[in-house]
Amino acid sequence: MKRIRISGCASQLLARNTPRRPSCPYLHRAVAPHNHRIQTRLQTTAATPIDEEIDIEIEAGTEDSTPGPVKAPRNFKEKPLPPSPHPQAAQHSVKLAALRSRLSLHSRFPLQTLARTLVHPSADPNPAFNNASLSVLGGNLLSYYTTEWILCNYPRLPMSVVFAAQYAYIGPVALATIASEWGIEAAAVPGSEVDPGLLQFQRLKSGEKLPSLLRQEVPWKWRNTTTHKIVATDEFGSDQAPVSPHALVNTAVPMEEAAQSFVRALIGSLHLHLGSLLVKRFFRDHFLSRQLDLSSLFDFQTPTRDLSRLCAREGFEAPVARLVSETGRKSRHPVFIVGVYSGKDQLGQAAGSSLDEARIRAAAAALKAWYLYRPIEVTLPSSTENQVDTSRWKPNMVDCGEVIV
Amino acid sequence: MPLSAIRTVAKPQNGVGAFILQCKKLEFHYCDWWGSSRGMNAFIKSSLPAFAKRNPSVEISISPRPRRHPVIQAHYINGNQRSICVRGMANELVREKAELLRDASGEKNQRFSKPVTSINESVRGIWSPFHGAQMRI
């Protein structure tokens, strides 16, 4: 039997030869589609090469037809279902509409894109339908906005605390929590028939180990400094090697991983559809509004030594600890209040149940008072994006950094 | 390392920046034959479209539950469910119950003994006997 040429029978390929894909799904609504699936491929927002996609499809088609001794004419009804829901199903999904409204997103933000942000690459390997590229963009935007906010508002913060603050706001755990607070539910198994309002990913079975990609560590070096962490690792200074979302195709992942990819992808798609101004507002409302006590992140080893080094660096007089008041020195619960003074200025004060404890606490309080300095007026670099008038820009304070002991 | 940092996660404060309605889904169950669902059926026919329009962030589903009393069931973001049986209630009363479920946070009902709870440090600080005017006996 003569082999059917795929390009001959599938008129959808003709439609796909257009050199540019329209970026907005609403643009080509009036065009009558030959085939719904292909039409929506044209509608996707991804800028992936089209040829590659066709190659994959043709290969898959020939594989289907070659092995059997009797080659039946290809039946299009038996074509395997797409791994993720059809983009058109997003229009009719109640869950998606409710989610969009719950996050108070603009109605200009299309539901199809929202549905795409919910598809993890482990569910759908096709980069035009999963959220991998969007989550890369969104992850970068998130770390940019958080970093600039932390660095401008707390210019003297030590680098390790900056890392911890980043982790607290946009770390993997924080993003997964945020997704669950938005009411994201996961589909048991991804598939085309699943409601597009559910998070779709290939689940890690219980008791299974994490995929090796998510367990990779940064190659160990004997000189792993903080500077090295700034340059070489991710925004949280972690030991884990950053994983590209595109690499997670067809690997079972934990729910946390899929949920954080959704949050990142949502930020990325908001940036593409609504612009950076609205993304910044969204970021302020949903991420910066969370409560984080930065002073509780510090973990000093030798605060007294740090403080004396700091005073020497800044040209203050050497710090002296003095007893401010005390009670019950001989009792079971003595309380000492110790202040750390540099000349006549009190740098910090704290209470402790022994003289040494109070002195160390006072030194830590003095260091926190220095490190947690917050300028009154701050202009974030991103606030001057796309603005002709630069008179609003005021340079931010840049500190020489933490004390090196 | 002279200074290390402790990793935590920032705490959510719903309503401080963005407000997210905690009610995720409302399910309305009715019966076509039983008289106890008369009010529920009237509510579904007349008031539910307006109710749904007013609350776009709540997913609403209607399903028959033959030979049973009418029930409104709510699903919340924290995973809890609440249901109210609205048998024999009039249209208005059913709407009130639906609004009650919509406004609930999904937490179990609990008694608050303090009028204010806060995760922020108090502005005045904890009273200390060592500071301020010393009392002399």
UniProtKB/TrEMBL annotation, chain A:
Pfam families: DSRM_MRPL44. It is found in: Mitochondrion. PROSITE patterns: DS_RBD, RNASE_3_2. GO terms for molecular function: double-stranded RNA binding; ribonuclease III activity; structural constituent of ribosome. GO terms for biological process: RNA processing. Residues 59-92 are annotated as: Disordered. Keywords: Mitochondrion, Ribonucleoprotein, Ribosomal protein, RNA-binding. GO terms for cellular component: mitochondrion. Its main location: mitochondrion. Residues 302-372 form the DRBM domain. Residues 96-184 form the RNase III domain. Belongs to the ribonuclease III family. Mitochondrion-specific ribosomal protein mL44 subfamily. This is Large ribosomal subunit protein mL44. It comes from Massarina eburnea CBS 473.64.
Automatic annotation (TrEMBL), chain B:
Residues 32-105 form the Ribosomal protein/NADH dehydrogenase domain. Gene3D superfamilies: Glutaredoxin. One of its GO terms (biological process) is mitochondrial translation. One of its GO terms (cellular component) is mitochondrial large ribosomal subunit. It is found in: Mitochondrion. One of its GO terms (molecular function) is structural constituent of ribosome. Keywords: Mitochondrion, Ribonucleoprotein, Ribosomal protein. The keyword Ribonucleoprotein applies. Belongs to the mitochondrion-specific ribosomal protein mL43 family. This is Large ribosomal subunit protein mL43.
